[in-house]
Design a protein that fits this description.
Chain B: It comes from Methylopila capsulata. Chain B: This is Anti-sigma factor. The complex is a heterodimer of chains A (about 180) and B (about 260). With about 180 residues, chain A is an all-alpha fold. In chain A, about 70% of the residues lie in helices and about 0% in strands. The longest helix of chain A has 22 residues. The termini of chain A are far apart. In chain B, about 50% of the residues lie in helices and about 20% in strands. In chain B, helix 1 packs across helix 3 and helix 5 runs antiparallel to helix 6. Chain B is elongated. The chains are: A mainly alpha (about 180), B alpha+beta (about 260).
């Protein structure tokens, strides 16, 4: 029994630990803030530890982890924002991108992140999961609990909008708006 | 060959490198023949690379200690911080009381009594047993006759296991757990998502009723009440207001006991 439990824990550690940097990155992109992002990831990992043996054995670990994190972010962070704690993009993007190799890169990256952040949440989430976290379309669909076709259309619309926002070359904060909450 | 038409999904999959070799060749051929679309796809690929570069540094940051998985596993095996804190408070209070000759007063203020004490005991049972993956209950639902007989004997009252099936929770089984106020019966339930609930019941010191009251300790929420000298507390990893309707179902059933 003790041996069985030990190997279950080792199995969990081996599958989950390599995903932690990606979970931190997704949380950071969603919240735009280091400490609330890490709080979210901590909450997520606590749930993962307590529910590990209850997950579907045939399900893949990565999309299960991102599903838990995404749902926590939606229920905690977006709810808080709706209650009046909206973070201005200028403040939010400060933390969202960690130190870039050069100052010029840093500015360019912050601008891009701010524009991504200005997209509707549903389009931005799909771009983050697919482009940044490298989830397959099917995995992203599982995380967001939507059909694969919806993932594809959000991806296409979001990317197009981001392209237009960059070529329009207007300051990012002019497109700042309160995002809808699912 | 008669190729099927290129779709927007194909172009997105091209950007994400999610096409088969054949599909990729097919799209590449199409792009060479359609420079406008090729230009758009090229810009989409650039955008993809820039986004990845913008977020890449986060991946290289050292993981902070509070996200150390080994520590989280270890912490999950200890009693919750909240209960540790209240134990520390009790020790401090007793030390203060002893030193100042106020021990009687200290004991009066702590520990909790009535349904509040029961609520704490239920939360502790939840912390200990609901997180136990190997043996959360001592007698499983299949042995419920034996479980109910055992509980009825230890609690000296006729017990039946409340049924939450209509609310989506299956009866898993239960056990007798120790409390400062004598043995208590613990029933455990779970739903299709593996969410667990614990109901604890025991005899109360007074024979009266207590209204349903919500309580929350750390992440564990619950509702506790007493009826005819028996105390009940239903707890889970949820807000008390979400547990309330389930507690109501149990209360309606226990009225018949």
């Amino acid at each position: 029994m003790a041996v069985g439990k030990m190997s279950v824990m080792q199995d969990m550690m081996a599958s989950v630990e390599p995903q932690i940097p990606g979970l931190r990155r997704y949380a950071r992109a969603l919240t735009g803030d280091v400490s609330s992002a890490d709080d979210l990831v901590q909450d997520c990992l606590e749930r993962v530890v307590s529910r590990w043996s209850q997950r579907r054995a045939d399900g893949d670990v990565k999309s299960w982890l991102f599903t838990i994190l995404h749902n926590l972010a939606v229920s905690q962070f977006r709810l808080a924002k709706r209650r009046g704690g909206h973070v201005a993009i200028e403040d939010a993007s400060e933390d969202a991108v960690a130190r870039a190799p050069s100052q010029e890169d840093g500015m360019r990256h912050r601008e891009l992140v701010a524009r991504l952040d200005a997209l509707p949440d549903d389009q931005r989430d799909v771009i983050l999961l697919v482009t940044i976290e490298g989830l397959s379309y099917a995995e992203a669909a599982r995380v967001l609990d939507i059909p694969v076709g919806t993932v594809m259309s959000r991806l296409s619309r979001g990317r197009e909008r981001l392209l237009r926002s960059i070529s329009a070359d207007e300051p990012a904060h002019s497109v700042t708006h309160l995002r809808s909450v699912k | 060959m008669t190729a099927r038409p290129i779709s927007e999904d194909d172009l997105q999959a091209y950007v994400d490198d999610a096409l088969s070799d054949d599909g990729r060749r097919h799209v590449s051929a199409y792009l060479s023949a359609n420079p406008d679309v090729a230009d758009r796809v090229r810009r989409l690929c650039e955008q993809r690379d820039q986004l990845r570069a913008a977020y890449a540094p986060i991946l290289r940051e050292p993981v902070p200690p509070e996200l150390n998985l080994g520590r989280i596993v270890e912490a999950s095996r200890r009693p919750s911080f909240a209960s540790w804190r209240s134990m520390a408070a009790a020790v401090a209070l007793l030390a203060l009381g002893g030193g100042a000759g106020w021990i009687g007063r200290g004991v009066n203020q702590f520990p909790a009594t009535g349904v509040l004490a029961l609520a704490q005991e239920a939360s502790q049972s939840f912390t200990t047993y609901a997180s136990d993956h190997g043996r959360p209950v001592e007698l499983r639902a299949a042995d419920s006759a034996e479980l109910v007989a055992w509980m009825s004997k230890r609690l000296n009252v006729k017990v039946t296991a409340p049924d939450l099936t209509a609310s989506g929770y299956r009866f898993m089984g239960g056990r007798i757990v120790p409390t400062a106020h004598g043995p208590a019966g613990m029933f455990m339930y779970d739903d299709d998502h593996g969410q667990r609930l614990v109901m604890l019941m025991r005899r109360m010191a007074s024979s009266g009723d207590a209204p349903m009251s919500e309580h929350e300790m750390g992440r564990i929420g619950g509702v506790a009440w007493a009826r005819a000298g028996m105390g009940y507390s239903l707890v889970g990893d949820a807000a008390p207001k979400d547990i309330y309707p389930l507690a109501d179902v149990i209360r309606a059933q226990t009225a018949k006991i």
